[in-house]
Amino acid sequence: MREELGHCPACFGKTISFKQTVKDHSTSKEEFDIWSCKDCSHLFTNPRVKEDFVGPYYENPDYISHTDDATSVFSKVYQTLRGINLNWKHGYVAKHAKGKSLLDYGCGTGQFLEKMAHKGYSVQGVEINDGARTKAARFGMVFGSIKEVNGPVDVITMWHVLEHVYDLDQLLEGFKAKMSANATLIIAVPNPESHDAAHYGASWAAWDIPIHVHHFTKKSMKTAVERNGFKLHKVLPMSLDSYYISLISEQYKEAASTKKIKHWMKGLIQGTISNIKGGKNNKSSLIYVFKNA
After folding, report:
1. Of 163, 182, 162, 159, the residue nearest 172 (C-alpha)
2. Which pLDDT score is estimated for 17?
3. Is residue 101, in this structure, part of any structural domain at all?
4. Which pTM value belongs to this model?
């Protein structure tokens, strides 16, 4: 079942319009529309699947953030890149946030919790998927909702999670209630203003509809989060995502059932081009560092 929005979910503006239609390549093969907001430039899936009915759209073996699979070539590459990304993520937190109490919201199977615990952080996680939450609990306390978290925490991280969240204000208010006075909020999301998004158009893998209900621009991210009492401090690139997203986009563009050598090669080339043209703050994915204002 779907619900239609008559306003922008990022700024609540009502000057919204249709942008394009995108196919759910990975699971249902259904088509969904993306709309844009004139006021804050936010892009959002509209109509969207009602939250109580979106679960089946996650039931795809390629959605490996909820698994530890390392059997296929793709999953092995993913796990290798995830290891590199974990080191980078630790570096982002160490450089831009103070304190040693960390909450990873949407922690999946807990690899980032494990990394940060080994680095001396006191870690907690939130994960709504039961199977992933059970696996993540090996590395720290993992809860099903923000309300259960033990506060205050010094750092909250969200790695490709906010685009899935239906009620932005409710979650951000929940974060505020659990954060210390000088805490840091770190959010990573796909960037629909990137070169690879423009290059692939409706085949861009990071649309990932319908499980992505938001497609944040730099302006709409700042608008939505600052409205809830945070202050944007820094925007950082996530360079590896350009290759991962370009690879899958090449597969989607040809409607191929499997990833072929040519997809890997073209993805590597296009990912490199996207990173070069994206410069420092317009990569395929971006990290936003906010301070608790």
Report:
1. 162
2. 98
3. yes
4. 0.93
Query: What are the Cα distances from residue 235, in Å, to 96, 179, 280?
Result: 11, 21, 9
The two three-digit tokens of residue 122, written as one number = 């006191």
Other Cβ atoms closer than 10 A to 285: 23
Query: Reading across the β-sheet that carries 141-143, which strands appear in turn?
Result: 141-143, 122-126, 101-105, 153-159, 179-190, 285-292, 230-237
What backbone torsions phi and psi does residue 245 show, to the nearest 5 degrees? Answer: -70, -40
In a domain, residue 5? The reply is no
Q: Could you tell me if residue 272 is inside a domain? A: yes
Both structure tokens of 86:
């974990």
Domain containing residue 261: 66-292
Residue 39 in domain: no
Convert the pLDDT of each residue in 58-111 to its tens digit.
Answer: 887 655 454 455 556 556 666 667 778 899 999 999 999 999 999 999 999 999
How would DSSP label each residue in 232-282? EEEEEE-THHHHHHHHHHHHHHTT-SS--HHHHHHHHHHHHHHHHHHTTT-
Tokens describing residue 78: 């993913």
Q: What is the CATH number of the domain that holds 197?
A: 3.40.50.150
Nearest to 290 by CA among 226, 236, 227: 226
Nearest to 222 by CA among 193, 264, 181: 193
Unique residue bearing structure tokens 């994206």: 278
Report how many domains make up the chain: 1
pLDDT tens-digit series, residues 203-230? 999 999 999 999 999 999 999 999 999 9
> Residue type for 149, please?
V
Cα angle 89-136-133, degrees, rounded to a multiple of 5: 120
